[in-house]
């Protein structure tokens, strides 16, 4: 790994100032960033650690539903969101392994927007709001393709606000070596309708399955999905599964998520 | 270079580290605590698992400077005060929970973390908790037996599949 300077601000303002410097990059839990730096796929001159910023941590109820500080680790979300939003807590408790969950953060996952990550599915299916040091971004506008987001250079996610659904569930078919979702589906039922987000499947990253949302909004039952199918075109194809296989998994998992939703 | 100070196995330690110095490197090369093993260095195998402020982490996926001020516990801090093996370590020996032993420090640290949180886990909970720790010798069954035995439960019922 190339060397760099590590700085540890204690406020968002200090972090933003540090990130304004040439070659600076944000470090959250580091569970993705550190391995990519070891491979020299990423060579920052400076890392600005966000995990010591108290105002970016914690889980609480607020006007926007459940508010989660961006530097909150998965293990904390798994515990502290369990009463208010059990499907989200369960998702957090299924990411990686216990050691990864003690370091990795929700903000880091959403900023990275790995096409197989779990949190993007929760944020998109919940119609969450991504709050940054500059503005609030609707999840529908935030995810812009594989590893691409609406974040500007130097912009930091500070909090994520999840409207709490009537019913929800997340199911993933795990790639057994990495524990990433080979395909994962988050289904959330709100008074205004059902939202369905699919991760791990598309070359464009997480996406909403509009036809399934319309069918489930009319009839929230697995049978409502019978006549629907997703195309394998544009889906990720690799040694773990073809595009058609992932498209098939998305439908199967959506049905199972509807059954599991509580 | 920056100075870091932390408590490791109850002792105050400090040292000079670069930004890129991993916690695993600091423990092994800076402090000579080579019980923390580097298996894959890609944060997948769990052999480098230690506790930082009571939470298990992969020390190869954390910078030493991030542990500044923290309480760190490694396998060297797991034995009883008189030097005898702790309950978990003894259970690994009794149930043949290791062959080559390379993964064992990480397994013991992960098991300790599980039992601190969940003193009587089920077999399924033990297996789920150990997902981030790889063993290429034992096939895991004896490791699971050892963890169950360390929790004071009967480990005899686990079928080797």
What secondary-structure arrangement, pairings included, does this model have?
The complex is a heterodimer of chains A (262) and B (161).
Chain A: E1 5-7, H1 12-19, E2 24-27, H2 33-38, E3 46-49, E4 59-62, E5 65-69, H3 74-80, H4 86-92, H5 98-103, H6 106-112, H7 119-125, E6 129-132, E7 136-138, H8 139-142, E8 157-162, E9 167-174, E10 181-190, E11 193-199, E12 207-208, H9 210-218, H10 243-260
Helix pairs in contact in A: 3-4
Chain B: E1 2-8, E2 11-17, H1 23-30, E3 49-52, E4 55-58, E5 71-73, H2 87-94, H3 104-117, H4 123-129, H5 141-150
Parallel strand pairs in B: 1-5
Antiparallel strand pairs in B: 1-2, 3-4, 3-5
Helix pairs in contact in B: 2-5
Gist?
Chain A is 30% helix and 23% strand.
Keywords:
heterodimer; A: 262 residues; alpha+beta; Uridine Diphospho-n-acetylenolpyruvylglucosamine Reductase, domain 2; Uridine Diphospho-n-acetylenolpyruvylglucosamine Reductase, domain 3; Enolase-like, domain 1; 3 domains; five-stranded antiparallel beta sheet; four-stranded antiparallel beta sheet; 10 helices; B: 161 residues; Ubiquitin-like (UB roll); DNA polymerase, domain 1; five-stranded mixed beta sheet; 5 strands; 16% strand; CO_DH_flav_C_dom_sf (chain A); Carbon-monoxide dehydrogenase medium subunit (chain A); FAD binding (chain A); FAD-bd_PCMH (chain A)
